[in-house]
Structure formats: C-alpha cells, structure tokens
Amino acid sequence: MANDLAKVKTTAFTSFSEALAAAPLGALAACRLITTDTANLSLGTGIGTGTWSVAGATEASPTDIDTVKVELASVNFEIVEMIKWHDINDNPDIVAQRAALLANRGAATIRDAVSTGILGLFTLAHPMELDRGILAGTKYIDGSIEFDGGPATQSNLLGAAALSQSTFATARKTLRGYKGQDGVVLGMGERVKLIVGEDHADVAYEIANSGVTSAALQASANKAGVSDVVVIPGLSTKWFMADEVNNPLIAWMRKMPQIDVRESATGLGVTLAGTATFTFGVTASEAGIVGANF
Questions:
Q1: Of 214, 291, 293, residue with least CA distance to 30
Q2: Tens of pLDDT along the chain (294 residues)?
Q3: Is residue 148 part of a domain?
Q4: How far apart are the C-alpha atoms of 213 and 231, rounded to whole Å?
Q5: Which of these, 139, 116, 152, 98, lies nearest to 233 by C-alpha position?
Q6: What pTM was computed for the model?
Q7: Beta strand extents in 135-268 (DSSP E only)
Q8: What residue numbers bound the domain in which 76 lies?
Q9: Which 8-state DSSP code applies to residue 225?
Q10: What letter would DSSP give residue 127?
Q11: Cα→Cα distances 244→4, 102, 120, 187, 269, Å
C-alpha cells in the first residue's frame, strides 16, 4: 500500500463501513429517529382542544389547535487522525484498524449523546415552563406538572423505585392515565419501550419475555405490553418507560458517521476525518415518558 492513496481510501472506507454496521447503536431505539437534513429542526406538539361536544342546533364555533414548538439545532461531531506513509508501509493493516476505531468512536459518541440526554430529563427545564400554566422550575420528568392551565397536576416521576414487575405495572398505569395539556386522557401505555441501564437489564428482559410474574407462576399481563427493551450503558440504576407511539424522545440523525480520506497537507501521510451530525432532543410535551430516578 506504499504511497497508494486510492488503495488507502478503499481500505479505509470498507473497514469503516463494516465496523459502523456492527457498532452498538441500539441506544437510538430508545427514541423516535428523524433524518431530516436541515440546519434546524422544528418539532410541533398539538396541545388539543378538549373532548367533543354534543351537536347542537347551531353550527359550533371553530377552535384553533394549540401548538407548541421546540427548535433543535444540529450538532456536528468530528475527529481527525493522521497516519504517516512509513507507518502504513511498516504495517499494512494500520489503515483498516484506525478506520474501524473511528467508526466505533463515532457510534460511542452518538450513544453517549443519547445516554446524557435521557439522564438529563430529571433536571431538564420543561419546554413549556411559564407557559400553559406550567410553573417555573418544572422539569421534564417531575412529580408535579400542571395541565389544563393549572392548578391540576400530574406526575411522570416514579421516584426511587427499582424496576420490578410491580413498578413496571405502576409505570404503565401512569402512562395509561396520563392527560394532555387540555385535560383529556391520551390513551397511552398499551405498547411501551423499557429503557434501562446495565443494572436493570436482566429484570427488563424477564418482564418482556416471561409469562409469569413470580415463583408462584401467576400469569403476567406485562409481557404483551413491551415492544422493546433498550439497554444503554451509563444509565446505571435509572430506568424509563416510553409509549411506543407517543414517545417524546427524539434522535435527530442529520448525517450518519462517515469518513473522509485525504493526503496530508505535508505529503508525509494521510488524514482520516470522521464526521457526524446528531442531536438528541425532546418534544414540548412530556406526555409519553415516565422515569425512575433510582
């Protein structure tokens, strides 16, 4: 591969693509994936207008659908490494090894962004803070979130509760009874994702796959309700339940990790540049997620 730039590019692209395809990007399954290629992403959430009224003798007055928007800015990630020609000549495998390493680092960067974003939900200021009756200091996952203009409140915070068959049922009950900002029950919780750290992975898989709830062989209704178990290293003992349809967690993959290979400015070697554009975000409404800050 002595000073053969074309061969270096082919080797690097092939190794990078294969490594990225095998990389653990399962954290993306915790979110709704959006691939829109724009500088900014606008997420609109319909707040609703309440339940329907009984038809009257006169035409009903039209009501505008109340919408709240969240704007996400795209975030670029990059890394550049140089390999000298004499190192390539001494070790023909070094290009493939470095390219695979870049792919794995790219996948880890995305996974960490998702993990950090989800962990931050307990301290993230609610996007509708000081709007629609939501008070100052309200977090995205909180024990008291105003709806219907206040003072009525509801909670999507399970507290310090370890994941179990019992707490799973409690979380699902919370989703089933959760209301929109107009005070109407949204009808969520029939199919859910369990988002857990490594400490709760075994329990999560048991809930998702076991037909019984205990050693007494009581039939479990929980199994049918789990659409996916997403294990994200870094969440530790914290766990979350997201509605499969109304999941408010957003993974905006504007550009997948990719590699660019060029001869270095000095001519002494080649540069491998890894780039990706990815943003984690949430919708304006917290409806669709509950979490345990265990």
A1: 291
A2: 568 999 999 999 999 999 999 988 889 999 999 999 999 999 877 666 565 656 666 665 655 556 788 999 999 999 999 999 999 999 989 999 999 999 999 999 999 999 999 999 999 999 999 988 899 999 999 999 999 877 899 999 998 899 999 999 999 999 999 999 889 999 999 999 999 999 999 999 999 988 666 555 566 667 778 999 999 988 999 999 999 999 999 999 999 999 999 999 999 999 999 999 999 999 999 999 999 998
A3: no
A4: 21
A5: 116
A6: 0.87
A7: 145-146, 153-154, 192-196, 226-231, 239-243, 249-263
A8: 5-38+71-125+189-284
A9: G
A10: T
A11: 50, 32, 21, 12, 49
**Count, residues in the chain:** 294
Residue 183 included in any domain:
no
Angle formed by the axes of helices 5-22 and 94-119, nearest 10°:
40
**DSSP code, position 209:** H
Residue 167 forms part of a structural domain: no
Q: How is 3-21 classified by DSSP, letter by letter? A: T-HHHHHHHHHHHHHHHHH
Q: Is residue 54 assigned to a domain?
A: no
The span from the CA of 58 to the CA of 25, in Å, is 56
Q: How many domains does the chain have?
A: 1
Q: Residue 242: which of 294, 210, 204 has the closest Cα?
A: 204
